[in-house]
Write a structure and sequence with these properties.
- The structure is a single chain.
- By secondary structure, this protein is of the alpha/beta class.
- It folds into 3 domains: 73 residues, no CATH class; 116 residues, Aspartate Aminotransferase, domain 1 (Alpha-Beta Complex), CATH 3.90.1150.180; 252 residues, Aspartate Aminotransferase, domain 2 (3-Layer(aba) Sandwich).
- 41% of the residues lie in helices and 16% in strands.
- The chain has 19 helices and 17 strands.
- The strands form 5 sheets. It has a 7-stranded mixed β-sheet, with helices on both faces. The chain has a 4-stranded antiparallel β-sheet with strand order 13-14-17-16.
- Helix 7 packs parallel to helix 14 and helix 10 runs parallel beside helix 11.
- The longest helix is centred in the N-terminal third of the chain and has 20 residues.
Protein backbone atom coordinates (compact mmCIF):
# COMPACT_ATOMS: atom_id res chain seq x y z
CA UNK A 1 0.00 0.00 0.00
CA UNK A 2 2.69 2.49 1.05
CA UNK A 3 5.00 1.70 -1.86
CA UNK A 4 2.08 2.01 -4.29
CA UNK A 5 1.24 5.49 -2.94
CA UNK A 6 4.85 6.59 -3.10
CA UNK A 7 5.04 5.59 -6.78
CA UNK A 8 1.97 7.72 -7.50
CA UNK A 9 3.53 10.92 -6.18
CA UNK A 10 4.41 13.05 -9.25
CA UNK A 11 7.96 14.15 -9.97
CA UNK A 12 9.08 17.72 -9.32
CA UNK A 13 9.85 18.44 -12.99
CA UNK A 14 6.42 17.25 -14.07
CA UNK A 15 4.76 19.64 -11.62
CA UNK A 16 6.99 22.54 -12.67
CA UNK A 17 5.97 22.05 -16.30
CA UNK A 18 2.26 22.30 -15.55
CA UNK A 19 0.69 25.49 -17.00
CA UNK A 20 -0.59 26.83 -13.67
CA UNK A 21 2.77 26.34 -11.98
CA UNK A 22 4.67 27.81 -14.94
CA UNK A 23 2.39 30.84 -14.78
CA UNK A 24 3.22 31.24 -11.10
CA UNK A 25 6.87 31.66 -12.07
CA UNK A 26 5.94 35.02 -13.60
CA UNK A 27 5.07 36.26 -10.11
CA UNK A 28 7.48 34.37 -7.83
CA UNK A 29 11.21 33.56 -8.13
CA UNK A 30 11.83 30.17 -9.79
CA UNK A 31 13.86 28.90 -6.83
CA UNK A 32 10.99 29.75 -4.49
CA UNK A 33 8.46 27.96 -6.71
CA UNK A 34 10.67 24.87 -6.99
CA UNK A 35 11.28 24.75 -3.24
CA UNK A 36 7.52 25.04 -2.59
CA UNK A 37 6.78 22.20 -5.04
CA UNK A 38 9.37 20.00 -3.36
CA UNK A 39 7.99 20.84 0.09
CA UNK A 40 4.48 19.89 -1.01
CA UNK A 41 5.67 16.57 -2.45
CA UNK A 42 7.72 15.87 0.66
CA UNK A 43 4.59 16.46 2.72
CA UNK A 44 2.69 13.89 0.65
CA UNK A 45 5.58 11.45 0.98
CA UNK A 46 5.66 11.89 4.75
CA UNK A 47 1.90 11.27 5.05
CA UNK A 48 2.11 8.17 2.87
CA UNK A 49 4.98 6.71 4.89
CA UNK A 50 3.06 7.16 8.14
CA UNK A 51 -0.28 5.88 6.81
CA UNK A 52 -1.99 9.26 7.18
CA UNK A 53 -3.45 9.13 3.66
CA UNK A 54 -4.80 6.26 1.59
CA UNK A 55 -4.84 8.02 -1.80
CA UNK A 56 -2.70 10.58 -3.56
CA UNK A 57 -4.74 13.68 -4.47
CA UNK A 58 -5.32 14.40 -8.18
CA UNK A 59 -2.85 16.70 -9.92
CA UNK A 60 -5.29 19.63 -9.84
CA UNK A 61 -5.58 19.37 -6.04
CA UNK A 62 -1.79 19.22 -5.70
CA UNK A 63 -1.52 22.30 -7.90
CA UNK A 64 -4.04 24.16 -5.76
CA UNK A 65 -2.09 23.30 -2.61
CA UNK A 66 1.16 24.51 -4.15
CA UNK A 67 -0.40 27.75 -5.31
CA UNK A 68 -1.89 28.42 -1.86
CA UNK A 69 1.49 27.68 -0.26
CA UNK A 70 3.17 30.06 -2.68
CA UNK A 71 0.74 32.82 -1.78
CA UNK A 72 1.07 32.25 1.95
CA UNK A 73 4.85 31.86 1.85
CA UNK A 74 5.36 34.99 -0.22
CA UNK A 75 3.53 37.22 2.24
CA UNK A 76 5.62 39.32 4.58
CA UNK A 77 6.51 37.40 7.71
CA UNK A 78 6.30 40.55 9.82
CA UNK A 79 2.66 41.58 9.69
CA UNK A 80 0.00 43.53 11.51
CA UNK A 81 -1.88 41.70 14.24
CA UNK A 82 -4.89 42.64 16.33
CA UNK A 83 -4.06 42.84 20.02
CA UNK A 84 -6.97 41.64 22.16
CA UNK A 85 -4.84 40.71 25.17
CA UNK A 86 -5.31 43.90 27.20
CA UNK A 87 -1.51 44.23 27.52
CA UNK A 88 -0.84 47.71 26.19
CA UNK A 89 2.95 47.63 25.76
CA UNK A 90 3.10 43.98 24.69
CA UNK A 91 6.80 43.36 23.98
CA UNK A 92 6.08 40.36 21.74
CA UNK A 93 3.64 42.45 19.69
CA UNK A 94 5.93 45.44 19.14
CA UNK A 95 5.17 47.42 22.30
CA UNK A 96 3.70 50.87 21.69
CA UNK A 97 1.44 51.25 18.62
CA UNK A 98 2.31 54.48 16.83
CA UNK A 99 -1.09 55.81 15.81
CA UNK A 100 -2.24 57.62 12.67
CA UNK A 101 -0.44 60.93 13.14
CA UNK A 102 2.97 59.35 13.78
CA UNK A 103 2.44 56.79 10.99
CA UNK A 104 1.56 59.52 8.49
CA UNK A 105 4.65 61.54 9.43
CA UNK A 106 6.75 58.38 9.22
CA UNK A 107 5.42 57.52 5.76
CA UNK A 108 6.16 61.03 4.50
CA UNK A 109 9.80 60.78 5.57
CA UNK A 110 10.27 57.13 4.59
CA UNK A 111 9.26 57.51 0.93
CA UNK A 112 11.96 60.05 0.15
CA UNK A 113 14.94 61.87 1.59
CA UNK A 114 15.11 63.89 4.80
CA UNK A 115 17.47 66.24 6.65
CA UNK A 116 18.62 63.54 9.08
CA UNK A 117 22.16 64.92 9.40
CA UNK A 118 21.91 68.07 7.31
CA UNK A 119 21.63 71.61 8.65
CA UNK A 120 19.23 73.25 6.19
CA UNK A 121 19.87 76.75 7.55
CA UNK A 122 23.64 76.63 7.07
CA UNK A 123 23.80 74.09 4.24
CA UNK A 124 26.27 71.96 6.16
CA UNK A 125 26.45 68.60 7.91
CA UNK A 126 24.27 68.54 11.03
CA UNK A 127 23.58 66.23 13.96
CA UNK A 128 20.76 63.71 14.12
CA UNK A 129 20.42 64.43 17.84
CA UNK A 130 19.49 68.07 17.14
CA UNK A 131 15.99 67.05 16.02
CA UNK A 132 14.97 65.96 19.52
CA UNK A 133 17.54 67.24 22.02
CA UNK A 134 15.91 70.62 22.64
CA UNK A 135 12.49 68.99 22.99
CA UNK A 136 13.78 66.45 25.49
CA UNK A 137 15.50 69.16 27.53
CA UNK A 138 12.36 71.31 27.46
CA UNK A 139 10.14 68.44 28.62
CA UNK A 140 12.47 67.09 31.32
CA UNK A 141 14.62 69.98 32.48
CA UNK A 142 17.80 68.15 31.49
CA UNK A 143 20.92 70.10 30.52
CA UNK A 144 21.51 67.81 27.55
CA UNK A 145 20.06 64.75 25.89
CA UNK A 146 20.71 62.17 23.19
CA UNK A 147 19.05 59.04 21.84
CA UNK A 148 20.31 55.63 20.74
CA UNK A 149 18.66 52.52 19.30
CA UNK A 150 17.32 51.09 22.58
CA UNK A 151 17.64 51.40 26.34
CA UNK A 152 20.06 48.49 26.71
CA UNK A 153 22.35 50.38 24.33
CA UNK A 154 21.87 53.53 26.42
CA UNK A 155 22.85 51.70 29.60
CA UNK A 156 25.89 50.21 27.89
CA UNK A 157 27.08 53.55 26.48
CA UNK A 158 26.53 55.35 29.77
CA UNK A 159 28.63 52.80 31.65
CA UNK A 160 31.26 52.39 28.94
CA UNK A 161 31.81 56.14 28.67
CA UNK A 162 31.68 57.16 32.31
CA UNK A 163 32.66 54.04 34.25
CA UNK A 164 34.94 51.91 32.06
CA UNK A 165 37.79 50.55 34.14
CA UNK A 166 36.16 51.80 37.33
CA UNK A 167 34.35 50.08 40.14
CA UNK A 168 30.63 50.75 40.34
CA UNK A 169 28.41 49.99 43.32
CA UNK A 170 25.05 48.35 42.57
CA UNK A 171 22.47 46.82 44.90
CA UNK A 172 21.90 43.06 44.63
CA UNK A 173 18.18 43.82 44.60
CA UNK A 174 18.62 45.63 41.26
CA UNK A 175 20.57 43.03 39.29
CA UNK A 176 17.66 42.58 36.94
CA UNK A 177 17.22 40.34 33.93
CA UNK A 178 15.11 41.72 31.09
CA UNK A 179 13.45 39.81 28.24
CA UNK A 180 15.63 37.46 26.22
CA UNK A 181 17.92 36.73 29.21
CA UNK A 182 19.84 40.01 28.98
CA UNK A 183 21.20 40.77 32.42
CA UNK A 184 22.53 43.90 34.10
CA UNK A 185 25.70 42.13 35.39
CA UNK A 186 26.61 41.00 31.86
CA UNK A 187 25.92 44.42 30.35
CA UNK A 188 28.08 46.03 33.04
CA UNK A 189 30.89 43.53 32.41
CA UNK A 190 30.82 44.09 28.65
CA UNK A 191 30.88 47.86 29.19
CA UNK A 192 34.18 47.59 31.02
CA UNK A 193 32.79 48.66 34.40
CA UNK A 194 33.65 46.51 37.43
CA UNK A 195 30.55 45.74 39.46
CA UNK A 196 30.67 45.94 43.25
CA UNK A 197 27.64 44.11 44.63
CA UNK A 198 26.23 45.52 47.84
CA UNK A 199 23.30 44.87 50.15
CA UNK A 200 20.88 41.97 49.94
CA UNK A 201 18.05 41.06 47.58
CA UNK A 202 15.42 42.64 49.81
CA UNK A 203 17.38 45.27 51.72
CA UNK A 204 20.10 47.75 50.85
CA UNK A 205 21.07 50.52 53.27
CA UNK A 206 22.93 53.84 52.82
CA UNK A 207 25.84 52.37 54.77
CA UNK A 208 26.23 49.72 52.05
CA UNK A 209 26.94 52.40 49.45
CA UNK A 210 29.20 54.31 51.85
CA UNK A 211 31.24 51.18 52.53
CA UNK A 212 31.47 50.41 48.81
CA UNK A 213 32.93 53.84 48.10
CA UNK A 214 35.03 54.26 51.24
CA UNK A 215 36.43 50.73 51.62
CA UNK A 216 35.81 48.70 48.44
CA UNK A 217 37.03 51.23 45.88
CA UNK A 218 33.75 52.01 44.12
CA UNK A 219 33.92 55.35 42.33
CA UNK A 220 30.35 55.58 41.03
CA UNK A 221 26.86 54.29 41.90
CA UNK A 222 24.59 52.57 39.39
CA UNK A 223 20.87 52.19 39.98
CA UNK A 224 18.52 50.01 37.91
CA UNK A 225 14.80 50.49 38.27
CA UNK A 226 13.12 47.13 38.92
CA UNK A 227 10.49 47.70 36.27
CA UNK A 228 9.63 44.07 35.55
CA UNK A 229 9.18 42.70 39.09
CA UNK A 230 8.17 43.77 42.57
CA UNK A 231 9.68 42.79 45.92
CA UNK A 232 7.18 43.14 48.74
CA UNK A 233 7.38 42.60 52.49
CA UNK A 234 10.55 43.06 54.54
CA UNK A 235 12.31 45.50 52.18
CA UNK A 236 14.38 48.66 52.21
CA UNK A 237 16.13 50.63 49.50
CA UNK A 238 18.06 53.86 49.10
CA UNK A 239 16.58 56.81 47.22
CA UNK A 240 18.33 58.46 44.29
CA UNK A 241 18.60 61.65 46.33
CA UNK A 242 20.49 59.81 49.09
CA UNK A 243 22.74 58.11 46.52
CA UNK A 244 23.51 61.44 44.86
CA UNK A 245 24.50 63.04 48.17
CA UNK A 246 26.86 60.18 49.03
CA UNK A 247 28.38 59.94 45.54
CA UNK A 248 28.87 63.67 45.02
CA UNK A 249 30.51 64.10 48.44
CA UNK A 250 33.07 61.52 47.26
CA UNK A 251 33.53 62.86 43.73
CA UNK A 252 31.47 60.12 42.12
CA UNK A 253 28.45 59.92 39.82
CA UNK A 254 25.00 58.38 40.02
CA UNK A 255 24.05 56.60 36.79
CA UNK A 256 20.38 55.62 36.73
CA UNK A 257 18.70 53.17 34.39
CA UNK A 258 15.15 54.37 34.94
CA UNK A 259 13.64 51.88 32.50
CA UNK A 260 10.58 53.90 31.57
CA UNK A 261 8.75 57.09 32.41
CA UNK A 262 6.05 59.59 31.48
CA UNK A 263 7.03 63.04 30.22
CA UNK A 264 4.24 64.70 32.20
CA UNK A 265 2.46 63.80 35.46
CA UNK A 266 0.17 60.78 34.95
CA UNK A 267 -2.51 62.64 36.92
CA UNK A 268 -2.98 64.77 33.80
CA UNK A 269 -4.47 61.63 32.20
CA UNK A 270 -6.48 60.62 35.25
CA UNK A 271 -3.88 58.05 36.33
CA UNK A 272 -2.27 57.81 39.74
CA UNK A 273 0.60 55.43 38.99
CA UNK A 274 3.71 55.67 36.83
CA UNK A 275 7.12 57.32 37.11
CA UNK A 276 8.18 60.62 35.62
CA UNK A 277 11.13 60.44 33.23
CA UNK A 278 12.64 63.52 34.87
CA UNK A 279 12.34 62.21 38.45
CA UNK A 280 15.87 60.79 38.61
CA UNK A 281 17.44 63.99 37.36
CA UNK A 282 15.50 66.11 39.84
CA UNK A 283 16.68 63.82 42.64
CA UNK A 284 20.31 64.39 41.68
CA UNK A 285 21.29 61.60 39.26
CA UNK A 286 23.99 62.70 36.83
CA UNK A 287 22.75 60.67 33.85
CA UNK A 288 19.49 58.75 33.47
CA UNK A 289 18.23 56.60 30.62
CA UNK A 290 14.90 55.03 29.69
CA UNK A 291 13.03 53.43 26.80
CA UNK A 292 11.07 55.38 24.22
CA UNK A 293 8.59 52.63 23.38
CA UNK A 294 7.20 52.17 26.88
CA UNK A 295 5.42 54.90 28.86
CA UNK A 296 6.42 57.50 26.30
CA UNK A 297 4.41 55.55 23.71
CA UNK A 298 6.91 56.13 20.90
CA UNK A 299 9.25 54.04 18.74
CA UNK A 300 12.00 51.79 20.08
CA UNK A 301 14.90 53.91 21.30
CA UNK A 302 17.00 54.61 24.38
CA UNK A 303 16.89 58.16 25.73
CA UNK A 304 19.81 59.58 27.73
CA UNK A 305 19.36 62.71 29.85
CA UNK A 306 21.86 64.42 32.11
CA UNK A 307 24.49 67.00 32.72
CA UNK A 308 25.91 68.47 29.53
CA UNK A 309 29.52 67.46 30.14
CA UNK A 310 28.58 63.78 30.52
CA UNK A 311 26.14 63.64 27.60
CA UNK A 312 28.75 65.27 25.35
CA UNK A 313 31.28 62.62 26.37
CA UNK A 314 28.78 59.89 25.56
CA UNK A 315 28.11 61.42 22.13
CA UNK A 316 31.83 61.23 21.35
CA UNK A 317 32.15 57.57 22.34
CA UNK A 318 33.23 55.62 19.24
CA UNK A 319 30.63 52.96 20.02
CA UNK A 320 27.82 55.49 19.70
CA UNK A 321 27.80 55.06 15.93
CA UNK A 322 27.07 51.34 16.36
CA UNK A 323 24.05 52.08 18.54
CA UNK A 324 22.69 55.23 16.89
CA UNK A 325 18.98 55.67 16.31
CA UNK A 326 17.72 55.31 12.73
CA UNK A 327 15.80 58.03 10.87
CA UNK A 328 12.41 56.31 11.08
CA UNK A 329 12.51 55.82 14.85
CA UNK A 330 13.79 59.37 15.23
CA UNK A 331 10.88 60.72 13.19
CA UNK A 332 8.35 58.95 15.41
CA UNK A 333 10.12 60.08 18.58
CA UNK A 334 10.11 63.71 17.47
CA UNK A 335 6.39 63.85 16.76
CA UNK A 336 5.58 62.06 20.04
CA UNK A 337 7.69 64.59 21.94
CA UNK A 338 5.83 67.41 20.20
CA UNK A 339 2.52 65.89 21.35
CA UNK A 340 3.80 65.54 24.92
CA UNK A 341 4.05 69.32 25.24
CA UNK A 342 0.28 69.14 25.80
CA UNK A 343 -0.92 66.18 27.95
CA UNK A 344 -4.42 66.29 26.46
CA UNK A 345 -3.04 66.22 22.93
CA UNK A 346 -0.64 63.41 23.84
CA UNK A 347 -3.48 61.34 25.25
CA UNK A 348 -5.47 61.92 22.06
CA UNK A 349 -2.68 61.27 19.56
CA UNK A 350 -0.52 58.61 21.25
CA UNK A 351 -2.46 55.30 21.37
CA UNK A 352 -0.50 53.76 24.25
CA UNK A 353 -1.25 56.72 26.52
CA UNK A 354 -4.91 56.64 25.59
CA UNK A 355 -5.11 52.90 26.29
CA UNK A 356 -3.27 53.16 29.60
CA UNK A 357 -5.59 55.91 30.82
CA UNK A 358 -8.87 54.20 29.87
CA UNK A 359 -11.20 53.79 32.84
CA UNK A 360 -13.07 50.62 33.66
CA UNK A 361 -16.29 52.33 32.57
CA UNK A 362 -14.83 53.19 29.17
CA UNK A 363 -13.61 49.64 28.73
CA UNK A 364 -17.00 48.21 29.70
CA UNK A 365 -18.78 50.51 27.23
CA UNK A 366 -16.46 49.34 24.42
CA UNK A 367 -16.85 45.70 25.46
CA UNK A 368 -20.65 46.00 25.37
CA UNK A 369 -20.36 47.45 21.87
CA UNK A 370 -18.18 44.55 20.68
CA UNK A 371 -20.39 41.99 22.41
CA UNK A 372 -23.46 43.45 20.70
CA UNK A 373 -21.76 43.25 17.29
CA UNK A 374 -20.84 39.59 17.89
CA UNK A 375 -24.36 38.67 19.03
CA UNK A 376 -25.86 40.40 16.00
CA UNK A 377 -23.55 38.48 13.64
CA UNK A 378 -23.92 35.16 15.51
CA UNK A 379 -27.29 35.04 17.34
CA UNK A 380 -26.50 31.62 18.88
CA UNK A 381 -23.26 32.67 20.55
CA UNK A 382 -22.93 32.92 24.34
CA UNK A 383 -20.71 36.02 24.39
CA UNK A 384 -20.82 38.07 27.57
CA UNK A 385 -18.97 41.03 29.07
CA UNK A 386 -16.81 40.42 32.12
CA UNK A 387 -14.43 42.49 34.25
CA UNK A 388 -10.73 41.76 33.75
CA UNK A 389 -7.36 43.00 34.92
CA UNK A 390 -5.28 44.44 32.09
CA UNK A 391 -1.60 45.35 32.23
CA UNK A 392 0.69 48.10 31.01
CA UNK A 393 3.24 45.47 29.95
CA UNK A 394 6.73 45.91 28.58
CA UNK A 395 8.29 45.97 32.04
CA UNK A 396 6.94 49.49 32.52
CA UNK A 397 4.71 49.30 35.61
CA UNK A 398 5.34 46.01 37.36
CA UNK A 399 2.63 44.90 39.76
CA UNK A 400 0.13 47.49 38.49
CA UNK A 401 -3.15 46.04 37.18
CA UNK A 402 -5.61 48.10 35.17
CA UNK A 403 -9.32 47.59 35.68
CA UNK A 404 -10.81 46.72 32.32
CA UNK A 405 -13.43 44.66 30.52
CA UNK A 406 -13.45 41.87 27.96
CA UNK A 407 -15.86 39.79 25.90
CA UNK A 408 -15.73 36.18 27.09
CA UNK A 409 -17.02 33.26 25.02
CA UNK A 410 -16.77 29.54 24.35
CA UNK A 411 -17.38 27.70 21.08
CA UNK A 412 -19.39 24.61 20.12
CA UNK A 413 -16.68 23.02 17.97
CA UNK A 414 -13.36 24.00 19.55
CA UNK A 415 -11.83 24.47 22.97
CA UNK A 416 -10.81 27.95 24.02
CA UNK A 417 -7.14 26.96 23.67
CA UNK A 418 -7.69 25.70 20.13
CA UNK A 419 -9.70 28.82 19.27
CA UNK A 420 -6.81 30.97 20.44
CA UNK A 421 -4.43 29.05 18.16
CA UNK A 422 -6.76 29.30 15.16
CA UNK A 423 -6.99 33.06 15.61
CA UNK A 424 -3.20 33.22 15.25
CA UNK A 425 -3.35 31.44 11.89
CA UNK A 426 -5.66 33.94 10.18
CA UNK A 427 -4.39 36.20 7.40
CA UNK A 428 -4.91 39.05 9.88
CA UNK A 429 -4.09 37.32 13.18
CA UNK A 430 -5.95 38.08 16.39
CA UNK A 431 -4.01 37.58 19.62
CA UNK A 432 -6.30 37.01 22.61
CA UNK A 433 -6.04 35.21 25.95
CA UNK A 434 -7.68 32.23 27.62
CA UNK A 435 -9.06 32.04 31.16
CA UNK A 436 -11.23 29.39 32.78
CA UNK A 437 -11.99 27.64 29.47
CA UNK A 438 -13.15 30.89 27.85
CA UNK A 439 -11.58 32.97 25.12
CA UNK A 440 -11.22 36.56 26.30
CA UNK A 441 -11.14 39.55 23.96
CA UNK A 442 -9.94 42.50 26.03
CA UNK A 443 -11.07 45.78 24.46
CA UNK A 444 -8.46 48.09 26.01
CA UNK A 445 -5.97 47.30 23.26
CA UNK A 446 -8.43 47.19 20.34
CA UNK A 447 -8.76 50.01 17.83
CA UNK A 448 -12.22 50.89 16.54
CA UNK A 449 -11.28 49.64 13.08
CA UNK A 450 -10.34 46.26 14.61
CA UNK A 451 -13.88 45.49 15.74
CA UNK A 452 -15.40 44.26 12.43
CA UNK A 453 -12.37 42.01 11.88
CA UNK A 454 -12.67 40.58 15.39
CA UNK A 455 -16.36 39.84 14.77
CA UNK A 456 -15.47 38.07 11.52
CA UNK A 457 -12.80 36.03 13.31
CA UNK A 458 -15.34 34.91 15.92
CA UNK A 459 -17.85 34.08 13.17
CA UNK A 460 -15.25 31.84 11.51
CA UNK A 461 -14.76 29.94 14.77
CA UNK A 462 -18.51 29.41 15.18
CA UNK A 463 -18.74 28.18 11.59
CA UNK A 464 -16.35 25.26 12.21
CA UNK A 465 -18.08 21.84 11.81
CA UNK A 466 -18.95 20.03 15.02
CA UNK A 467 -16.35 17.53 16.20
CA UNK A 468 -13.72 18.50 13.62
CA UNK A 469 -11.41 20.60 15.79
CA UNK A 470 -11.99 19.26 19.31
Amino acid sequence: MTSRLLRQIPKTDNILSRPAIKAAQDHYPYAFVKATVQACLDDLREKALHDRIDTIPPMEAIEDTILSWLQAGHLNHLKRVINATGVVLHTNLGRAPLGEAAAAHLAELAKGYCNLEYDLENGKRGSRYAHVEKLLCELTGAEAAMVVNNNAGAVFLMLNTLAKGKKVAVSRGELVEIGGSFRIPEIMYESGAEMVEIGCTNKTHPRDYERAMDELGAEHIFKAYTSNFVINGFTESVSVAEMAKMAHERGGLVLFDQGSGFLFPPEAMGMHVGNLACAGLKDGADVVCFSGDKLLGSAQCGILLGKKEYIERIKKNQLTRMLRIDKLSLAVLEICLQFCRDPKLAQEKIPALRMLSMTEQECRFNAEQLCGMIREAIPTCDAKVISVKDEAGGGSMAGVLLDGAAVAMSFPSVTAERAETLLHLRELPVVARVSRDCLLLSVRTLFEEDLPEVVEAVRELYALPMGRER
